[in-house]
Structures are given as C-alpha cells and as structure tokens.
Design a protein that fits this description.
Blueprint (H helix, E strand, L loop, with lengths): L2 H11 L1 H22 L32 H37 L1 H15 L3 H12 L3 H28 L2 H8 L4 H37 L11 H8 L8 H28 L1 H6 L1
Helix pairs in contact: 2-3, 2-10, 3-4, 3-6, 3-8, 4-6, 5-6, 6-8, 7-8, 8-9, 8-10, 9-10
Length: 281
Amino acid sequence: MSLELSFERRALRHPSFAIGSALVLLLLATAALSFVWTPWPPTELDIPHKLALPSAEHVFGTDSLGRDVASLIMAGARNSILVGVIAVAIGLVIGTAIGTLAAAAKGWVEEVAMRLSDFTFAFPAILSAIMLTALFGPGIVNSIIAIGIFNIPVFARVTRASAKAVWTREFILAARIAGKSRLQITLEHVLPNILPVIIVQATIQFATAILAEAALSYLGLGTQPPQPSWGRMLNEAQTLMFQAPRLAIYPGIAIALSVLGLNLVGDGLRDLLDPRLARQR
C-alpha cells in the first residue's frame, strides 16, 4: 500500500480532520462561488427594503441599507481568505527563514534573531494596525501587513525549536562528516523534516488571521466600504441587536465555522503527520 493511500485512509478515519476539511472546503467553495455569482450584488443598496426578514428573495434578509446579507457573507469570505493567505505567507516565509538561520548559526546570530522576534511579539496585530493606520490610513493592505508582522515571530519560534531538535539527530552528524555546509544541511535535511510542523502552524495561524481581520474590520481599521467584511458586518449590526439580531448572528456563525474548521484541520494534521501517531492509527 502506498504512503499516499495510507495517508488518505487515515485522514478519512480521523474525525477532526474530516469535519474540519468539510468546513474549510465549504469556506473555499463559498469564496470561489462569490467571484462568479451571488444572489444579489453585494454592494447594491435597496433602502425601501431595508431590514427585510429572510424570504425566498433574500435568504438571510437584508441589512440596514437594504443589501442582501447572504451576498455580503459570500463576498466577505473571499476577503477573509485573501487576508489570511497573504498574512500567513508573510509570516511563514520570513519567520521560517529567521528560525532556520537561528538554529543553524547559533551563538550571537541566534540570540539577535530571537530577541528581534521577541520585540515583534510586543506589537500585536491590532496595535500594529493602529500604528500603520495612523501613518498610512485604514485599509485591507495595512491589515495584511500588521497580521503578517505578528505571524513572523510565531513561525520563527516554532521553526527554531523544531530545527534545533533536528540538528541533534544522527543523520545530521553524518551529513556534517560528509562535508556538507550548514546551508546544504538546512535545505536538504532540516527543512524537509520540519515541514509538517510548519504546515500545521500555518493552518492554525490562518484561523488566527481570519479572527484578526474580523477584529480589525470591526474596529474600522481593516477592510473599508464598500468591500464586504464579516467584521464590519458585526460592527454595523451592533446598533440593531434588539431590532434585528440576525444581522450579527450570520457573520458571527461564518467566522466561528471558519475558525473551527481550520483549527480542526490543524489538529488533524498534527496527528496525521506525526509518525508516532500515524503508526498508532
């Protein structure tokens, strides 16, 4: 039996991974569909029919400006994915480079790299976004940069810890005896062995990025009108909580299901990619 088939069979039998994958696929399918079709144009205003109840015409009803809530949810999914993918990519590329460098170089290089990571940790995504907004104004680009900067030390720490464990293995000693440089060992032996850990961490940070984007948009620092955003939908719904609580429930459920799905996938991947757990399943 091939390794690929073995992984697929174990994945199907892993409840967390199976449920999480279904939720993530639903998120991706919703975002992809919104590029070609939504029940109504997401930014189309229809004031005479504002706060309409759910019906065959408007499945989730309309908001305070008459916009179709279902269309806003669908379009908001693609913005959440856009922010998550780019922000995680920024943290992954830069953080992994810093972590592997720190583990390979050791000494003062490791100390400087990790202290810089610790310094970056002192500026959470929201605080970074506030500073960037003060300088350049609110917007989705600044949100991506802020969340990406927050992700860098996370990946740096995880990568460094995993890489240092690999550097103590016997096959690394054999590679050094064979005359390979630290760069060659890092690229050929260290990175392939810590890749599963990085993939799992990327999945978890993706969920965190979606939450951060929603929080920043809720505060008015993220996605700006007229672009749809789940966080801004929550902000706009807070004044209508007693009149139309459904306006907060729908985007709240969308955020919760997306984050839950990604976290379940991350937990499942941690089990499936761990060789010791894989042998037990």
